[in-house]
Amino acid sequence: MNNPVLYIVVPCYNEEEVLPETSKRLKVKLSDLIAAGKVSPDSRVMFVDDGSKDRTWEMIRSYHEADEHFSGVRLSRNRGHQNALLAGLMTAKDLSDCTISMDADLQDDINAIDGMVDQYLEGCDIVYGVRSARDTDTFFKRFTAEGFYKFMELMGAEVVFNHADYRLMSKRALEALSEYKEVNLFLRGMVPMIGYKTGTVEYERGERFAGVSKYPLKKMLAFALDGITSLSDRPIQFILTSGLVLTAGGAAFLPRALYKYAKSDHENDTALLQSSLWTVGGLVLISLGIVGDYVGKIYLETKQRPRYFIAETLDNHKD
To answer: What is the pTM of this model?
Structure first.
């Protein structure tokens, strides 16, 4: 086997503070891999600008002009992390033998790339970067993150525990991913559906080098909800089950309620009725909200709108 062409795909949104260090470290890592004969000299670091409002694209352009090992993709507008990542992967698919996706904030251990490439050379099509521990996280962050993965599993979504979007994918795995046409993207749940031979590399996640997180709690909750409703219909099954249980329970207690009603002085009937109405009304509204979320996703999928548009590409293979 010839040395594979590797593209490291890095989505960026307003990352001007961290890009100088990120580009420096990734260039060193790529150079080491090339020198060791593990990857081809045609390998690249591909930054994907997701409609940044700062100098991110200017910096990407300057890196490309100074060094052929840097390439860039600029989206026409901000489309979100998952769409930006997919745009980079689909662009790199036609230029490389394998890709590694990672965030720009340097929290993912760059040294894990070596293990991913080794497993690819041994025949793996997908290699997941998995956190070995969450010692650097606050209790709240650790509790919510681990709860997220467990809840996703409970809801029937197939995800790799403690894995985000740090992974290697072969060319044929990317070809398979390109067959998925969903508008509502949740890549960490879609990739395990592909199959093929997989492996894992454990690493310790560090602190963000600079800048601020693009995923505050509100966005994380929305991301989790999108993931569940994009990958599983189990919430709707729970609604049906809850409805059957409530109906059966109500029917079972109806004779007793009628008997007590006939015997009592009816002083507490209003309070009991109000409590029941609030409970059942809340369940109905939650159920409508869940079903509405699914209907909204169906609405977006049927429109088949493009997930992104690429405004500009910087790569010496295409110059």
So the answer is: 0.74
